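Aim 2, interim progress: modelling of the acetamide-bound target.
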Amino acid sequence: MKNIRLLIILAACFMFFDSYATSTEITIIPRPVEAEIAKGYFTLSPKTVINIVNGEDDLHYACNFFNKLMTNTFGNPLSVKQGTNRKNAVNISVNPSLEKEEYYLDVTKKTINITAGSSQGVFYAFQSLRQLMPLNVENGEHLANIEIQNISIKDKPLYPYRGAMLDVVRHISSKEDIKTFIDMLALHKFNRFHWHLTDDQGWRIEIKSYPELTRVGSMRAETLIKKTSEYDGTPYGGYFTQEDVKEIVQYAAENYITVIPEIELPGHASAALTSYPSLGCTGGPYKVEGRWGVFNDVFCAGNDDTFTFLQGVFDEVIELFPSEYIHVGGDECPKKRWKECPKCQHRIQEENLKNEHELQSYFVERMEKYINSKGRKIIGWDEILEGGISQTATIMSWRGTKGGIEAAKLGNKVIMSPNSHAYLDYYQSKDRENEPLSIGGFVSVEKVYSLNPVEGLNPAEANNVIGVQGNIWREYIKDFPHVQYMALPRIAALAEVGWTPTEMKNYEDFRRRAIILTHRYKALSYNFANHILSEE
Ligand code: ACM
Ligand code: ZN
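Predicted structure of the complex, ligand included:
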């Protein structure tokens, strides 16, 4: 009996030690630029202090994050002091001569030193430290102390933009789940959350000057069942109030993540048109769609009221989101209605435009000027290239990397989010029978990992690529555990694409570390896909 108990304890120990850095190999994702493991351990205990040697206004967000882990471990936070470097401390120095997101993390036998370019860099040092600590820090049983492998890290990201998009239109998530999504991004050192808030199937953000958008536009009467032509007969909807939005933007800021709202124009506008039918070319009637796809009814580009409306929407959106970028959509806008609409045709003549593609450019550039006048920049999907593009718009390349390459060559900034590598709503296994129903495609973890965002560009053009993004469209993703299943561990692969120098990438090494990271997902009660465990 005693022997069996001993065996169980030994087995548990092996499982436990397997889960974090006790080995001579690096376990952190994304892989740090430089990391050297040294002999020995630092013993972190409730007596260890967080010692701020010098800091910044928002450093408390980083410290609060770390102290949450400490509270999970010891039952109480570490005390926070100020002073010169000391023993048995996490000494924090912000040194603005480093890059903003850059950090050094030194764990020695006597103390832990963090030096970073800003509080954000300190936060990333804590995220790395987290991955060097046992799973108890996530939500386990209390420990008396923690031994942390001695290590010296010098680290900074490859790209300044590391994002993920979540569609809350086709299916919505609660505020708490959105916060968990932000936590998931922070764990992987992402710094942008692109929030897809409006589309044909619903309008999900309160706009006080246009109340019909949520009164009418947030509800659809029914939804198509799976891939059939039958509807479920059940109304579906919901939206985020401005108070909800403020809470989420603040929560993201505490995790050094900027929230970029997306308000779709000129297409994907059925919910807006159903709320305000006079803004469409035909005047309606319209309905909030219960089907997926691309719809012919779009904002009328010949009607000045459309621009007045959108300006009013952006006035409120810009107040709510401090982001430098506002996403204006721009994808999949059919030109059928514009071809038939006297107002749109009149606009083409009046503005000396060649065709409806140029009308789309007119539309986007008119809104861009307005958004620029408020001190913000736009991002648009790669279709905004089609009728000519302003110098200042940033392109999000989704139909492969082709549009991104074209834009980078033109001198525009680019975010690579190709459906070939970064569509996390696609199947992640070829064995579709055993996967939840998906929109289609096939993007394995290895495929995500293989993305080279600057392939096909010379070094000057490559400088225009500011980063990468993974997208989670939710036609078939109803609940949050399913979102997590699609995101994890593929966002770990994308995190490394966005962070680690390309020449350092090695899929087998990544896979070893990703398997270790899945233990942390489990400890955090995150649902995840485990295909990487059985890859050949
Ligand atoms: C998109 O997937 N339509 C951007
Ligand atoms: Zn029109």
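The chain has two domains: 32-155, 161-505. Residues 32-155 form a domain with the Chitobiase; domain 2 fold (CATH 3.30.379.10).
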